[in-house]
Amino acid sequence: MSVHIDIAGLRPEEIAVVPSPLAELGMALHALSEPGHHPGLQGWVTGVTARLDPHLADRMCEADFLWRTTFSDLFMPFAGVPGRRTLPGATLAEELDLLDKLTDEQFVDAALEFTCAQPYCSHGPDALSDVEVRRRALELAAARGPQQLRFSERLLADPPRIRAWLRQFLRDCDEAFFAETWSRLRHQFAADTRHKTDLLRRKGLADALAAVSPAVTLDAAAAHITVDKLGEGRTATGDGGLLLVPTSLGWPHLAVLHRYGWQPVLHYPVGSPELAAPPTLEQLALRMTALSHPVRMRMCRHLARSAYTTGELAQVHGMTAPEISRHLAVLKKAGLLTTRRRGRYVLHQLDVTVVARLGSEFLEGILR
After folding, report:
1. Is residue 360 exposed (0-12), middle (13-18) or buried (19+ Cβ within 10 Å)?
2. CA separation for the pair 27, 367 (Å, rounded)
3. What is the DSSP string of 297-329?
4. For residue 363, what is the DSSP state?
5. pLDDT > 90 fraction of the chain, expressed in percent and rounded
6. Are strands 216-219 and 2-6 parallel, antiparallel or unpaired?
7. Mean pLDDT of 155-172
8. How far is it, in rounded angstroms, from Cα 311 to Cα 342?
9. Residue 64 near residue 32 (C-beta atoms within 8 A)
10. Predicted confidence band of residue 276 (pLDDT cuts 50, 70, 90)
11. Residue-averaged pLDDT of the chain
12. I want to staple 78 with a disulfide (CB 3.0 to 4.6 A). Which of 86, 162, 337, 352 is the partner?
């Protein structure tokens, strides 16, 4: 499972690394709504929450499904501007102006993404013009709760009013806490932008993507980028460009904007505790499956304490050597064992460092 970006015909000058204040504000709202996803931001979340105006906190809950359960594409309006070459604005005010350039259909479709009522990677009827899509969207919103239903009803009845509400809400968030945060983060973004841009110019896209995340790979021959994620999706740069947008508040999320007709965007974390080479989702599943078998779990109890030969494990567990060998092969294929030779014997031991990382790797993998 992964997201693929077809970049056939994409020229180097059509790739840009640009920070986005609006996208970072979206991540800030997400971190405030889901602090458990971001243990490294606990101090920041506590500080902002403590001084947050109660009225603004209530408004933050009114449409938090735009940034809590999904990261709405409304926070990257530059990607939806016709021509698919628009860059993020330098200021939040500039990006809010870009938000105004989206059509009502684009705005409503992006806002209703949490309902999954419309196709994301392909073109289909929109909720403003199609009665059945509208009915389905409201039905799915109702399943999420009365708050989501009320917002969706207001959105479909009067998109300009919701646009104005969202714009004012984001401006108030900027004044309350985000302007200070953005000012602090700008230097980090500037350094990362220079680094990635320099990699693009000197070494090419493959090296730049490897610096973005080990989960992003380039197949130059096939002219496509693959992002290792639990979700599936496809998009293409076509006659547009490709944007790499850094986030300091976003780890462990690695987002890919691949909405039909919009410019592809990789929204990647910088300054994160991400491991240098985390396992792929396939490797992670392989390791968890390997450890889930009761016999292998009992074997690991011994292998975590010391190194054993196949014969020793067979004797301890009352099994045949071939049976033990098959279980050891599964653990070794999953990368959970280290082996060394002592004379004519091969000793096996659990790689406790790898096993200890599984919890954080699982969290990073499912939230990526």
Report:
1. middle
2. 13
3. HHHHHHHTTS-B-HHHHHHHHT--HHHHHHHHH
4. H
5. 58
6. unpaired
7. 96
8. 14
9. no
10. very low
11. 90
12. 86
The whole-angstrom separation of Cα 315 and Cα 245 is 56
The answer to whether residue 275 scores a pLDDT higher than 60 is: no
| 126-132, Cβ contacts within 8 angstroms, sequence gap of 24 or more | 127/156, 128/104, 128/156, 128/159, 129/105
Q: Any bridge partners for residue 247, and if so which?
A: 269
pLDDT tens digits, residue range 35-80? 888 878 888 999 999 899 999 999 998 888 899 878 999 999 999 9
Q: What tokens appear for 180 in the block? A: 């200070």
Select from 248, 206, 252, 202 the least CA-distant residue to 230: 252
Check pLDDT > 70 for residue 273: no
**Mind listing the pLDDT tens digit for each residue in 72-108?**
999 999 999 999 999 999 999 999 999 999 999 999 9
Asked if 22 and 95 touch (Cβ cutoff 8 Å), the reply is yes
Tell which residue, 191, 276, 218, 185, has the closest CA to residue 17: 191
Banded model confidence at residue 230, pLDDT cuts 50, 70, 90: confident
Length of the chain as a residue count: 368
Report the C-alpha gap between 358 and 350 in whole angstroms: 13
Phi, psi (rounded to 5 degrees) for 228: -75, 100
Put the strands of the sheet holding 2-6 in their side by side order. Answer: 216-219, 224-228, 2-6, 233-236
| Of 103, 111, 41, 40, nearest in space to 71 by CA | 111
For residue 107, give the H/E element and its range.
helix 104-111
State the Cα–Cα distance between residues 42 and 51, nearest whole angstrom. 15
Tell me the two tokens of residue 248.
């300091």
